Amino acid sequence: MTDSIVVKLGGVAGKNLTKQFFEKIHFWKNQGKQVVVVHGGGNDVSRMMQKLNIQVKIVNGLRVTSKEALDVTKMVLIGQVQPNITNQFLEQGLPVVGLNAADQHCLIGDYVDQAVYGNVGSVTQVNVPFFETLLKDDIIPIIAPLALTEFNQWLNVNADDTACKIAESLKAESLYLLTDVPGIKVADDWIDNLSLEEAADLKHGVLTGGMIPKVEHAVSAVQKGVRNVHITDCIHETGTTISWVEVRV
C-alpha cells in the first residue's frame, strides 16, 4: 500500500473544480500524499460528435468508437478537456503535467470487443516506474483515458477503468470516482458503505447505466489492493465507500 490517492474526474466534475476541491488536494499534498488525476470528458466528446454529424452510440455504458469517433475523442480529451483542467491546477499553485498514452507508453491496452464496441479498450499495463518518478518529484499527473495497444493503435478507454487500473498498479491508498451523483442509491437511500459482496450483489437489477461498469471497476480495484474506493460527486465527501470491511446496507 502506498501513500497515493487517485482521483477520477467525470465529464461534469471536471468543469466544476471548486475551491473545496483544491483545498482537499492541498490538504492531501501537505500530508505527504501523492495525487494522480484521471479525467473524463464524455459529454464534451458527444457534443463535438453531434456537431460533426457523427453518431453517438452507447452500449453497456461504453461509447461505441469508430475511427471517426476515436479521432474526435483524442482531439477533445487531449486538446480541450485536459488543458482546461491542468490550467486550473496550475492557477492553484499545484505542479502538474498532462499525459496521454503516447507519453512513455504510460498506458497499454487491448480491445474489449472490437466487433461490438470498435476502438474501445481496457488498460492492461501501467508504466509504474514512469508514474513513480513523477510522483517522487511532487508532480501531479493528469491523465486522459486513452491507451495504446502493443502495436501503437489508439483505444478509447472508460475513465473509471483507467483510474482503477492506475490505482491498482500503484497500490493506492484511496480511489475517488467522481460522478454527477453523491453515491449509490438503493431504495431511495444513499448508501455510506458497501462490502465487496454487497457491491457485487447490487449489479443484479439494482444498478443501471454507467453505474454498472463503475461499480465493477471499483470492486476489481479493491480486490487488487486498493484500500478504499469512494463513489461521490466531490472529494470532500466520501460518498459510497467500497472496501473489504464487512458492513450491511
Explain the layout of strands and helices.
Elements (H helix, E strand, L loop, with lengths): L3 E6 L9 H12 L3 E6 L2 H10 L6 E2 L2 E2 L3 H25 L4 E4 L7 E5 L2 H4 L2 E7 L1 H9 L3 E4 L2 E3 L5 E4 L1 H12 L3 E5 L5 E3 L2 E3 L1 E3 H7 L8 H13 L4 E5 L7 E4 L6
Parallel strand pairs: 1-2, 1-11, 2-8, 5-8, 7-10, 11-15, 14-16
Antiparallel strand pairs: 3-4, 6-7, 9-10, 12-13, 15-16
Helix pairs in contact: 2-3, 6-8
Offer a concise description of the structure.
By secondary structure, the chain is α/β, with parallel strands linked by helices. The chain is built from eight helices and 16 strands.
Protein architecture, described:
Strands 5-8-2-1-11-15-16-14 form an eight-stranded mixed sheet, sandwiched between helices. It has one domain (4-183): 3-Layer(aba) Sandwich (Carbamate kinase). The radius of gyration is 17 Å and the shape is globular. The two termini are 27 Å apart. The protein has 249 residues and is of the alpha/beta class. The relative contact order is 0.17. The protein contains eight helices and 16 strands. Substrate binds at residues 41-42, 63, 156. It is found in: Cytoplasm. Pathway: Amino-acid biosynthesis; L-arginine biosynthesis; N(2)-acetyl-L-ornithine from L-glutamate: step 2/4.
Helix content: 25-40%
Look at the helices and sheets and give the structural class.
Answer: alpha/beta
- How big is the Rg? 17 Å
Tally of structural domains:
1
Give a count of the beta strands, DSSP E runs of length 2 or more: 16
Main sheet overview:
8 strands, mixed
CATH class (first level) name? Alpha Beta
Question: Stretches where pLDDT falls below 50 for ≥5 residues?
Answer: none
Tell me the strand percentage band: 25-35%
Tell the overall outline: globular
Order of helices and strands: EHEHEEHEEHEHEEEHEEEEHHEE
What is the CATH topology classification name?
Carbamate kinase
CATH homologous superfamily, by name?
Acetylglutamate kinase-like
Named CATH architecture: 3-Layer(aba) Sandwich
Widest sheet, order of strands: 5-8-2-1-11-15-16-14
Mean pLDDT: 91
Number of helices: 8
Note the gap between the termini: 27 Å
Site (Transition state stabilizer): 8, 214
Keywords: Amino-acid biosynthesis, Arginine biosynthesis, ATP-binding, Cytoplasm, Kinase, Nucleotide-binding, Transferase
Catalytic activity: N-acetyl-L-glutamate + ATP = N-acetyl-L-glutamyl 5-phosphate + ADP
Pathway: Amino-acid biosynthesis; L-arginine biosynthesis; N(2)-acetyl-L-ornithine from L-glutamate: step 2/4
